[in-house]
UniProtKB/TrEMBL annotation, chains A, B:
It comes from the Archaea. The keyword Oxidoreductase applies. The lineage of its organism: Archaea, Methanobacteriati, Methanobacteriota, Stenosarchaea group, Halobacteria. Pfam families: Pyr_redox_2, Pyr_redox_dim. Residues 5-317 form the FAD/NAD(P)-binding domain. This is 3-phenylpropionate/trans-cinnamate dioxygenase ferredoxin reductase subunit. PANTHER family: NAD(P)H SULFUR OXIDOREDUCTASE (COA-DEPENDENT), PYRIDINE NUCLEOTIDE-DISULFIDE OXIDOREDUCTASE DOMAIN-CONTAINING. Its cofactor is FAD. Keywords: Dioxygenase, FAD, Flavoprotein, Oxidoreductase, Redox-active center. Belongs to the class-III pyridine nucleotide-disulfide oxidoreductase family. InterPro entries: FAD-bd_OxRdtase, FAD/NAD-bd_sf, FAD/NAD-binding_dom, FAD/NAD-linked_Rdtase_dimer_sf, Pyr_nucl-diS_OxRdtase_dimer. It comes from Halobellus clavatus. GO terms for molecular function: dioxygenase activity. Residues 356-459 form the Pyridine nucleotide-disulphide oxidoreductase dimerisation domain.
Length: 475, 475
């Protein structure tokens, strides 16, 4: 009798793999070990839960434990895999204080990412939050809710919720001023979430612009959106220390020496691949520190796969291994590995780093390589252009200015990346650029793509095409 | 001294060519002959002018005659080219009752399309309209406006407007019931325009669904949108005759024998390439009846180009010559020909038939080959799937059901076409499919495209990716 397909981690990659494996081969035994209580939750939805737009924690779960069981998957929550022996093909699992050995036939490591430990001096003070996991999100929303309106049952989540911590924050007076440290997409989305509770929001970013991965033009548009919304931005300011009294944070200290009194801090700087499990194994890590994988998600060790936020994937543009922890590639790689393990080999695809972020009314997107230094390091000679064009025919009401940046290689004309910002259907337009990257189009070819045109939705020349025309003209 | 670049037709293709030629070679003489008074107008915007969302006729002009002159283009309105002599390289031009010969060095035929003459018996009755040109649009809006509120000056358009006709309609009582004959995209958009004036709208379509070029699934979604809006659809009913008394239409007669009393009729069935000018020339027409062209927009005769609604272009998927009169390909081909004529040869690209249409709150898009018979005729073995998926993460408010159809070739997996309908950012998502066609992706490759994900804009698996997954699974 063969050993099961063992999956370590019950989130996007792990449960996609487990589900696809069972669908492809219903006779295959699949065991999923999840160290926590939450499974398959939508990390990207947590800011909207804090904001109150998403009502209950269970709304963020794409699969309930019962639904997983119905798929014939043996899901074990509260089970932490603490060791891997790739020679004997077993993992060591700890649960309820006991440890046992579990043989595997195929193994998927999908342990995800974790917030950086103590990213700033003082991070362990009370009322300092990260946003890693639903318990954090619940605690923040509890804190924001006036005590007289708070009821832990309103948050949902059932017995998976760490209710004691949440109730402690629910009893506190809501913060009047919050500092958000780090203006990546989580920071920007959390600024919007805090603002919805009428909190005075201060957003700190070490670089000169927010969402640096989205490029300068999007960064400028986000600054304007934050200003319009009344968020105070502190750009080019690095928070070096959090200070507090009675155990709770009360002051943010910047490298310039300036300080700000606050009632709470959200730290949104940095996650790392959760690779502790493989440290004493022959499973190799790539240059990013995440687990190295091949086109089918296989690691350097036979029958061991890795996917999701713990693994590298090939980059769509450069082909080089990259660590871009994002939701779709995790789901896609998990699903492909599930099929492969079940006997229907499927490639995991590549990652272009395509991402979208909402900053109040502003929609932003990015894909591929925007950074010129990174493009040069990959052997390209990058040229970029930024344009602003209407989202609709100029005569149609409510056409919105849409800013597009495209980057191409001067020698070959190949498109390398792009970004977009605007208030009218801007974010989804990045998918056109992402698909052009996937098709390895030149910017001249992108200029000639036969995109749609209708006055309410797009001008004759979509802003992406306008950018392609201008960039192609300057190559 | 060389003769000028002569352009016949002052609309999208013609003026794009003239402008690009002058920008590329400012010393080049460019003459544009336009038989009418209107130039460079947005045909696709006319329903929204009728509706009243676009205020004035001049809002629909992307270029004024003055702006054309500023570009150094010799624009002659009211000049009809009535003959072409390709041996002597001259055109015969009629203006103010006189005819003169104009030599050319390069010639672009951009005479566009015209409404089918007398498409239905009784089409020449009064209060029967097509929507071909701004004078028609102005007449319809004048008719819809209550006489006590009507002023011809409110429509704009200056001396280009045929004011006498418009004033006659402005003096009439507005129609209470209108029949729209033909539910292509103009018919659907005009139904919305009439509805905005509280007219009882009846939409007739010979086939079982509106917008047949968009496929069955979009057709069904449009039917639901029209029903919700209170438009009465008469599907599977062919209008065979319009009857009237005192010269004005009062009855629509269907092939079934059923009749409907109406106060006005909008006929939106069919346009033809305006090829009269080349009938006695060696310039060849393709199988569609439009002018045959090569990859650079050249006709069968040296130094003669054709572009826009009068010309064929290669199809993105089949490579075969096709007649797909749409705005972007006209602009793109004109622009490329202008560059080519000025000494910087640029290909005109291909046409995928990408189109978008708005049906009240519903956004629709289509691209490539949806029709299985057409796919088979091009040598493919078509397989299609239709799915419905959310436009956003399910937990995020106002996620909208989005219906996607994709078609692929069974043998190769190559994507052949797609369509989409939904109320939340649906139309622009067709550009992802169009770009996948341009990149000659298989449906498996489309499934692995790294599209964006953010709860407010797109679920982890964008509806287009969901459709690709399902179709790829059934190949």
């Amino acid at each position: 009798m063969s050993a099961p397909f063992v999956v370590v981690g019950g989130d996007a990659a792990g449960l996609s793999a487990a589900s696809k494996c069972r669908r492809t081969d219903p006779d295959r035994d699949v065991v999923v070990f999840e160290k926590g209580q939450w499974i398959s939750y939508a990390h990207c939805g947590t800011p909207y839960f804090v904001k109150g737009q998403v009502d209950r924690l269970e709304d963020l779960l794409s699969l309930s434990p019962a639904a997983v069981a119905e798929r014939g998957i043996d899901l074990r929550r509260g089970h932490e895999v603490v060791g891997v022996d790739t020679d004997s093909q077993t993992v060591s699992v700890r649960a309820d204080g006991e440890t046992f050995e579990q043989p595997y036939n195929d193994l998927l490591i999908a342990t995800g990412a974790r917030a950086v430990d103590d990213p700033i001096e003082g991070s362990s003070l009370d009322r300092v939050f990260t946003l890693h996991g639903l318990d954090h999100a619940a605690a923040i929303r509890a804190f924001l809710t006036p005590p007289e309106e708070f009821a832990v049952a309103d948050l949902g989540g059932g017995d998976a919720l760490a209710a004691d911590v949440v109730e402690r924050y629910g009893a506190m007076s809501p913060p009047e001023r919050v500092a958000v440290v780090g203006a990546g997409y989580v920071g920007v989305e959390m600024a919007e979430a805090f603002d919805a509770w009428d909190v005075d929001v201060h957003l700190f970013q070490r670089s000169e612009r927010p969402v640096p991965g989205f490029g300068d033009a999007v960064g400028d548009a986000v600054i304007a959106a934050l200003d319009d919304a009344g968020v105070t931005t502190h750009l080019g300011e690095e928070v070096v220390r959090l200070r507090g009294g009675a155990g709770a944070v009360d002051t943010v200290v910047c490298d310039s020496g300036s300080t700000l009194d606050v009632d709470a801090v959200l730290v949104g700087i940095g996650i790392r691949p959760n690779v502790a499990l493989i440290e004493d194994t022959p499973i190799e890590r790539g240059g990013s520190g995440a687990i190295a994988t091949d086109a089918f998600g296989r690691t350097s060790v036979d029958d061991v796969y890795a996917a999701g936020d713990v693994a590298e994937m090939p980059h769509t543009v450069t082909g080089e291994a990259t660590w871009d922890p994002l939701g779709l590639p995790a789901n896609r790689a998990g699903r492909a590995i599930g099929a492969t393990v079940a006997g229907d080999p499927q490639p995991v695809g590549s990652v272009a780093g395509t991402a979208m972020v909402k900053a109040f009314d502003l929609e932003c997107g990015r894909t591929g390589i925007l950074d010129h230094d990174r493009a040069r390091a990959a052997g390209f000679d990058p040229v970029s252009e930024t344009i602003t064009a209407g989202s609709r025919s100029g005569y149609y009401p409510d056409a919105a200015e849409t800013t597009v940046t495209l980057v191409a290689d001067r020698a070959t004309g190949r498109l390398l990346g792009g970004s977009i910002a605007g208030t009218d259907r801007a974010a989804v337009r990045i998918d056109t650029v992402a698909t052009a990257l996937g098709g390895e189009l030149t910017v001249g070819e992108l200029e000639r793509q036969d995109l749609g045109y209708a006055p309410p939705f797009s001008p004759v020349w979509d802003p992406v095409l306008v950018a392609a025309k201008v960039l192609n003209g300057s190559l």
